[in-house]
Amino acid sequence: MKYIEDLDLNECTLKFGKYVNGRTQFSVVTLEGEQVCCATLNCAWHSISDKEVIIKDYQENEGIYDILFAANVVSKVKRRISVGLHQAYVCDLLIKPKFKYVR
């Protein structure tokens, strides 16, 4: 199992999908197919544009935002939203998703 602090995006790929409400979802997956994390959240009660995603950067995903930002996958944090006791980040998705499945 890979951990976020050991993550090298050169050794991973992003697997895209859609949430039921049509928002973009993606996971970080190793080249062997092992899911490292689901990087996004679907907070239907928060309004976001079609080009935005909500990044979960807490608990088991802590540090994923910095990795995705450094790799030019997501933009600078545009705003923070409350998710229970935590904060998630609303960012623009800077790459064009290649959808392989629908969730």
Q: How would you describe what is shown here?
A:
By secondary structure, the chain is mostly beta strands. It has one domain (4-92). It contains 1 helix and 7 strands, in the order βββββαββ. The strands form 2 sheets. It has a 4-stranded antiparallel β-sheet with strand order 4-5-7-6, with no helix packed on it. Strands 1-2-3 form a 3-stranded antiparallel β-sheet, with no helix packed on it. The longest helix has 7 residues, at 64-70.
Any descriptors?
mainly beta, 103 residues, three-stranded antiparallel sheet
- Average residue pLDDT: 89
Q: Which structural class should the secondary elements be placed in?
A: mainly beta
Q: What is the β-strand count?
A: 7
Multimeric status of the protein: single chain
Question: What is the makeup of the main sheet?
Answer: 4 strands, antiparallel
Helix and strand run: EEEEEHEE
Number of helices: 1
Sheet with most strands: strand arrangement: 4-5-7-6
Low-confidence spans: none
Helix content: under 10%
Which radius of gyration do the C-alpha atoms yield? 13 Å
Any idea how many domains? 1
Give the strand content: 25-35%
Q: Can you summarize this structure?
A:
By secondary structure, the chain is mainly beta. It has one helix at 64-70; strands at residues 12-18, 24-30, 35-38, 40-41, 52-55, 79-83, 86-92. Strand 1 and strand 2 (24-30) form a beta hairpin.
